Amino acid sequence: MKATRLYTLLALLILFGGKAFGQVWEFADEFSYSSDECMTNFDATELSDGTIAVSSVHYFKSGEGDFYSYHSAARKLSADGELLAEKSHFRESYFSPNIPYLIENPNGGLYMLATYSPDHDYTYFNYFKNYDNPPDKAIIGLYKLDENLEIEASYEHDFVIDTFEKHDSQWNWLPNHYSGEIYVFSAFEDEGSVVGGYIKTISHGNENQDWHDSIFFFRMNFEGEFEDFTGYEMTTRGGAVSFVYRRNHIVKDDSGYLFYIQGNGCLVEFSPNVNRKGCVFRLDEHLNVLNVREFRHADYSQMLENTFYNITVKRSNHNTTYLATSSKSKSDPSNDEDCRLYEYDDSGTSVSVTNHIIRGTDQWDMPAMLKGVDLANDNTVYFAYTLNVGFMNDLDSWMMIERLDTNLDTISTVYYDLGGYENIHSEAFGITATNDGGVLLVFSSVNLNNIDQHWTTVTKFPAQAFEGIEEAHDNGLKVAIAYPNPGKDVLNIRTGLQDAWVEVYDMNGRMVYGQEITENVTSINAESWPSGVYVWKVIVDGKEAEVGKWIKE
Predict the structure, then answer these.
(1) Dist CA 396 CA 260 (whole Å)
(2) Which of 78, 83, 437, 477 is most deeply buried (CB count within 10 A of its CB)?
(3) How far apart are CA 386 and CA 364, in angstroms?
(4) pTM above 0.85, yes or no
(5) How far apart are CA 24 and CA 367, in angstroms?
(6) Which residues sit opposite 431 in a β-bridge?
(7) Burial per residue of 162-174, b for 16 or more beta-carbon CB atoms within 10 angstroms, e otherwise
């Protein structure tokens, strides 16, 4: 372990100029939004040889907003977090509407599944400005990559798409998102083939009322040939599907596949119900849709509506599905969202909740938006989410990794942020359980004191980091947090520790508050306290488990 930490320290001295962490390793790139281009990491996959394939996107600054034009990219890290290769798969006059999927076949070959749609941005060098005769084809391709991530073999299919352009305010803001495109929302290896799904959207503002988006499910072999291919007309028409469909929406069960979708967008031929806000489609082994069912929140009767956001799913080993999602808070639905992890029994004619947990603050919280839940080899569940996100990324935050048993009872909860700065906002993108019992976390961070300073990071934590307080601390993790910080009238202490005690001291060392911790969140009334700096302590078995400073404004 000492040798590993030494490697981590040396690597991070180069990357961060002296910042040290204790986890197994951390690969981070610093970039600025004022730069012309950058590469951002979104998902990590452990390959059979122990190396890490990282699905990335190469951004080019253009359009009326900041980074807008983007293209498929990939990175490959060693088992120790060293960069082995990186490659941007730029295509002139095209953009990539979704993050590429890096998939390993049973023989150990690495493949990239990516889509390319005509680029409608007219302010950068790779524009396709031809409004009288615009391109009308999008590409979905499977690409075999060599050890340097260069394309070794290419298998492409092109499809005619709608390229109608209505130059309203939305189109001017994000022309690619509001133009016709192909967007892949799920893809994974299954018995020697790639199974996935994509949506073909029409352009935003298309006035032809007979045109609708379409959804397709496919099975493709590793020579790029479609073995199964089904398509259905949807009830939706245009829009930015990447804001609704994230990643990891399809799971396989004993009789076929299950496709979970948020919102009430359904298929035309399956009698859509306008009140339905969560749908699961049953697909047979050839990806034909058999039926559609509704899934609901556990406390549906207490909520204003049955709405789900940011969903990703993972199949359990006992014929149920784990679903990570966020929902509007019952106490403040207009200004707050909470994180939820559900286990659904979806094997019968209805979909019912068997277990669930709810996590959140009084701010906008969200699960890791591309992969919020994963399953370890010992069947324990890892749930990743970000607390105190704040609206529009304007608040400090903590990324959470919660380890749960098969009943969704908490084994341990740890807190992590990108250290070395006082005011960091981070957002978790995905959690991946590794074969040695550890986890990979992919996330993005911004320095709120210098919002031009950003990091894109992949980090690995060992299995022992989740075994106890000392092990968590040894790996750069916290077991308790205080928020909001700075705050005003309320100090919240959040911890998953049991049989704990919290104490608060002023800067003169006088204890101003103390109580037993009985809930995950202990809210302390600080209205009468003078403004200033306070020290809070969480104590377990007479020992300080966590100590921190809290500022009252």
Answers:
(1) 31
(2) 477
(3) 9
(4) yes
(5) 23
(6) 441
(7) bbbbeeeebbeeb
Measured at the CA of 411, the angle between CA 408 and CA 415, to 5 degrees, comes to: 105
Q: Which two tokens stand for residue 506?
A: 């002023």
Q: Strand 398-404 to strand 410-416: parallel, antiparallel, or no bridges (unpaired)?
A: antiparallel
The answer to whether 479 touches 467, Cβ cutoff 8 Å, is no
Whole-angstrom distance, CA of residue 263 vs CA of residue 309: 8
Closest CA to 85 of 143, 149, 40, 39: 149
How many Å apart are CA 523 and CA 531, to the nearest integer? Answer: 18
pLDDT tens, position by position, 265-322? 678 787 655 566 888 999 999 999 999 999 999 998 888 888 899 999 999 999 999 9
By the 10 Å C-beta count (0-12 exposed, 13-18 middle, 19+ buried), 528 is classed as: exposed
| SS3 labels along 165-227 | CCCCHHHHHCCCCCCCEEEEEEEEEECCEEEEEEEEECCCCCCCCCCCCEEEEEEEECCCCEE
How far apart, in Å, are the Cα atoms of 181 and each of 115, 139, 242, 265? 9, 9, 11, 18
- Token pair in block for residue 291: 């039926």
Alpha-carbon gap, residue 281 to 260, rounded angstroms: 7
Q: Which two tokens stand for residue 490?
A: 């309320």
Structure token pair of residue 470: 């000392």
Is residue 396 helix, strand or coil?
coil
- Token pair recorded at residue 83: 């960069």
Residue 142, Cβ density class (10 Å: 0-12 exposed, 13-18 middle, ≥19 buried): buried
Q: Supply 191's token pair.
A: 């018995």
Bond preceding residue 106 cis, omega within 30 of 0 = no
Between CA 182 and CA 240 the distance in angstroms is: 11
For residue 503, give every residue at least 6 positions away whose Cβ sits within 8 Å of its Cβ, in sequence order, or none.
511, 513, 514, 536, 537, 539
Cβ atoms 472, 548 nearer than 8 A: no
Residues whose CB is less than 8 angstroms from the CB of residue 497 and which lie 6 or more positions away in sequence, other chains included: 469, 479, 480, 517, 538, 540, 545
Q: Is 260 helix (H, G, I), strand (E, B) or coil?
A: strand
Return d(Cα 327, Cα 438) in angstroms, integer. Answer: 29
Nearest to 382 by CA among 316, 449, 427, 326: 316
Tokens of 79: 């088992």
Collect contacts of 390-395 with beta carbons under 8 A, ≥24 apart: 390/363, 390/364, 390/425, 391/335, 391/363, 391/364, 393/425, 393/427, 393/446, 394/425, 394/448, 395/363, 395/425, 395/448, 395/484
pLDDT, block means (10 residues), the chain with 553 residues: 27 32 80 86 96 94 63 96 96 88 97 91 53 76 98 96 71 75 95 96 75 92 98 80 85 95 76 71 96 92 87 96 94 89 95 95 92 96 92 80 95 85 87 95 92 92 93 92 89 91 96 93 95 96 93 93
